[in-house]
Amino acid sequence: MGRIKSALEIALERTESVKSDKATIDQFEAKQQGKKLANQFLEDNTTDLAEAIKKAPKDQQSSLKQGIFDVLLSQIILPLSKDDEKRIGAVGRGLQIVINDGKFAALYQQLSQLLARYLDESAQYEEAIRRQYEPKLRQKEEELARRYGRAVKLDPLQDPEFVAFYNQNMNALKGQYQAAVDQVRQEAARIFGEKK
What we know:
Order of helices and strands: HHHHHHH
Number of helices: 7
Distance between the termini: 59 Å
Number of strands: 0
Largest sheet: none
Mean pLDDT: 88
């Protein structure tokens, strides 16, 4: 009867022929470090990305930039509230450090203005939607008050009909602005790819 091998022994036999390439590992680690730097930059806005790139070994700078770029690019999204304006600005500054292109800086400035307009328009849309739905909501409250014999106050966001109406209108607005966001992301990727 033969010896039964452990899972570790089997795995070691299968990976025996795989040799680790130190350069590949270094590039992977540099990219991961870039992602960490970008996240720190977005959190505290004091991390000096340019200095970190300069300090990195020359053969790892490209991977470090790629990691930073990947994280920052993923942050080019429609804002949810006015609080996101700070993040939008930080993303633009970080991308400008990594991309270092005047055309991109101007494009991102336009995007920042567009996103600020989106936030304003979004608030106006929400208010208009609530005003438009208000009579129907009051009618439902009156109907429930008659049924239960006491006053009923409904939250519009708990009414499935309002939520569907709200989402339909807000998604139409988001769709208009999402196209501009997607275009800036594509342009950033294109310029970054050319600079590599």
